[in-house]
Amino acid sequence: MSRRPSTDVEKDTPITEKFEHNTKEDVQDGRILAFTPKEQKAIFRRVDIRLVITLGVLYCISLMDRTNLGAASVAGMQVELDMNAKNNGYTLVSLVFFLTYTIFQAPATVLIRKLGPRSFLAAIVVFWGATMIGFGFVPTWEVMLALRLILGALEAGFYPGCVYLMSTWYPRFELQKRNAGFYLIGSAAAGFGGILAYGLMQMDGLAGLSGWRWIFIMEGLLTCVLGIGSYFIIVDFPEDSPNSWSFLNQDEADFIVARIEKDRADTVVEPFSVWGYLKHAGDSKVWAMAMLYLLTTTNSYSIAYFLPIILQKGMGFSVAKAQCLVAPPYVAAAIVMYIQAIYSDKWRMRGPVIAGNALMGIVGLSLLGYMKGPAVRYFGVFLATIACNANCPALVTYQSNNVRGQWKRALTSATLIGGGSIGGIVGTTVFRAKDAPNYGPGILAGLIANALIVIIVALLTLKFYRANKRAAAGGKIIEGLEGFRYTY
Fold first, then answer.
1. SS3 assignment for 295-358
2. Distance between CA atoms of 292 and 296, rounded to whole angstroms?
């Protein structure tokens, strides 16, 4: 790709016409003007491959590794390890993951900034893959519980690290479709985890191991391989030296940085201090966003962990059908979330999309929980799965669009995903073994969570509208940057 200096623009072509996709501010920055719109898209396509696709594939493995308990359960894990309603072994093993996953979120976002995304992310993927292999050899559910604590600590740095890394590379209104693409790859492929698990179950008896053990062993091996490979693909932060990327030259790197500076002026990293990091916790919207993600993941984790069991015990499907029927709702969710992301970026609109999804979730859970026929209930599964999964990338973008500064971005990524991990705790505890097959308390908790999402989004929208109006009238500057406006 050749670099085109701003001085080479043809004299007979107006700059604003030659670069029709650039704004007036872009024209004033030679680092952006150096590339035509076609060249700019080509640069971002290369960034997308290194970030969205690579991280999305790893996220797929992450989701499968943390949620394959449901598949292993219907494959005989609960019976062999004596997990029952009396000891609540399955619920406890599901739950403890989120304890360490929550605790290590904030430290992990500091480490990724210090160690660099490539080294940090690749290392934790390999280590948790090795932990997954260990799941296949546990003698008791108590040992599995201990390994789940280790898995939670290792995975704690991955999702917030990915969210933080991608938010540093893209302007605010080009971010949701990237977040959706990342999440789409993960959730759609993870939806097929049930089918993969069913295939691995057929290894039952090989080397004297049960089929459910092979699910963990083979998926763990796959995780290790992908973790090693990712070290050679993942890139560091855009303001770092392009020598560590090799896929961009200096002019292209300058273009990326210039776009971020124009959008929100926060590529410069201040020296780390505990106070400089934690002071942003005083911002109320940080916790409102974390609460929204908590409420969304209460639904998404409930579905991920318990859908195979509900399909088998609640709707009467066979093990094979229960494993395979998990996939279609996730595929539908992937399609809807990406379409939503395209138009949400185009219209620069976040809150109404999130609230609309929550309303869809209320309808879906009502059908699943309170209707009789399996067809109607399965349709409810579609709506509920689409709603909570589509809201995950939407909420990540909603939060990213409304904060500035590297350390604030790091903290809010941690608090947001930390809220999500607490949602995982809620989702796994409200679905109790003794409530089978209908899981009434779990369904009710999901309905309440979606209703609260609508209320919180409405309050944030009012807050953002008033702040924007006040700033436009010459009042308080938003996020310390003149001209910055909230997205709602």
1. HHHHHHHHHHHHHHHHHHHHCCCCHHHHHHCCHHHHHHHHHHHHHHHHHHHHHCCCHHHHHHHH
2. 6
In total, the chain counts a number of residues equal to 488
Query: With 50 as the cut, is the pLDDT of residue 10 above it?
Result: no
- Number of C-alpha atoms within 13 angstroms, CB side, residue 57? 17
Element housing 115 (H / E): helix 105-115
**Separation in Å, CA 218 to CA 55, 128, 136, 310:** 20, 13, 9, 25
Confidence at residue 268, expressed as pLDDT on a 0 to 100 scale: 76
Residue labelled with tokens 């996730």? 330
Per-residue pLDDT tens over the stretch 131-189: 999 999 999 999 999 999 999 999 999 989 998 999 899 999 999 999 999 988 877 66
Domain 12-474 CATH class label: mainly alpha
CA–CA distances in Å: residue 73 to residues 69, 81, 201, 234, 283 = 6, 10, 11, 34, 42
In angstroms and rounded to an integer, the radius of gyration of the C-alpha atoms of the chain is 23
Cis check for the bond before 328: say yes or no (omega within 30 of 0): no
Burial class (CB in 10 A: 0-12, 13-18, 19+), 152: buried
Q: What is the pLDDT of residues 43-86, one digit of tens each?
A: 999 999 999 999 999 998 888 887 788 788 888 999 999 998 78
Q: For residue 175, give every residue at least 6 positions away whose Cβ sits within 8 Å of its Cβ, in sequence order, or none.
A: 166, 167, 345, 397, 400, 401
Please state, in angstroms and rounded to a whole number, the distance separating the CA atoms of residues 404 and 266: 6
Q: Which two tokens stand for residue 12?
A: 């007979």
Q: What pLDDT shows up at residue 14?
A: 35
Exposed, middle or buried: residue 148 (CB in 10 Å: 0-12, 13-18, 19+)? Answer: buried
**Cα–Cα distance measured from residue 334 to residue 192, given in angstroms and rounded to the nearest whole number:** 12
Would you list the domain boundaries of the chain? 12-474
CB 353 within 8 A of CB 340: yes
From 192, 220, 460, 435, select the one nearest 327 (Cα to Cα).
192
The DSSP H or E segment spanning 1 is: none
The pLDDT of residue 245 is 58
pLDDT over 90 percentage in the chain:
55
Q: CA-CA distance, 309 to 315, in Å (whole number)?
A: 9
Measured distance CA(177)–CA(184) in Å, rounded: 10
